[in-house]
């Protein structure tokens, strides 16, 4: 874009509205054409009145404008790609967080179920021990009554 001349030819022509268009499919507005026609440096030098020189200058300015426009489009495309990548990463993180939340909830649910099962088992054990204790207590009362009866008989004799 700098000092080296471009070997690429840009051909332009006037359309029906007297707007200049580039044949390669890029349309240029009047303001762009006006900027290209303005002298690049406001020095006091006179420009040649030759149409070839003006065409060459105009072609050079068009090429520069096209290069600037292409760079701007590339920059915008790169920004769009970056935004898309950011959205993709954000979505992937969201999915990962959701999977982690589900996994955590599953672990928590399993732990709660294990704890409930252990609590239920302990409650049933406590009930069995209470029944066994009541049974032993009845047996002891029976034995106590039997021995009291035997003691009363012995005392009667």
TrEMBL record:
The organism's place on the tree of life at top rank: Eukaryota
Q: Which Pfam families match?
A: MIC19_MIC25
Topology in the lipid bilayer is annotated as:
Lipid-anchor
Ranges for region Disordered: 33-57
Query: GO CC terms on record?
Result: MICOS complex
Q: Where in the cell is it found?
A: Mitochondrion inner membrane
Against InterPro entries, the record matches this protein to: MIC19/MIC25, MICOS_subunit_Mic19
Is Lipoprotein tagged as a keyword? Answer: yes
What keywords are annotated for this sequence in UniProt? Answer: Disulfide bond, Lipoprotein, Membrane, Mitochondrion, Mitochondrion inner membrane, Myristate
One of the GO biological process terms: inner mitochondrial membrane organization
Its protein name is MIC19 protein
Q: Which organism is it from?
A: Ptilonorhynchus violaceus
Tell me the classification of the organism that encodes this protein.
Eukaryota, Metazoa, Chordata, Craniata, Vertebrata
Q: Which gene encodes it?
A: Chchd3
């Amino acid at each position: 874009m700098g000092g080296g001349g471009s070997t690429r030819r840009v051909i332009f022509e006037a359309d029906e509205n007297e707007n200049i268009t580039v044949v390669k499919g890029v349309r240029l507005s009047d303001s762009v054409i006006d900027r290209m026609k303005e002298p690049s440096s406001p020095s006091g030098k006179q420009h040649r009145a030759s149409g070839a020189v003006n065409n060459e200058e105009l072609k050079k300015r068009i090429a520069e404008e096209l290069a600037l426009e292409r760079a701007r489009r590339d920059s915008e495309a790169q920004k769009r790609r970056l935004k898309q990548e950011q959205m993709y990463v954000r979505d992937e993180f969201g999915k990962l967080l959701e999977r982690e939340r589900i996994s955590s909830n599953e672990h928590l649910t399993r732990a709660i179920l294990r704890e409930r099962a252990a609590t239920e088992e302990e409650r049933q054990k406590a009930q069995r021990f209470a029944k066994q204790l009541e049974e032993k207590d009845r047996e002891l009362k029976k034995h106590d009554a039997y021995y009291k009866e035997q003691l009363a008989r012995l005392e009667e004799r």
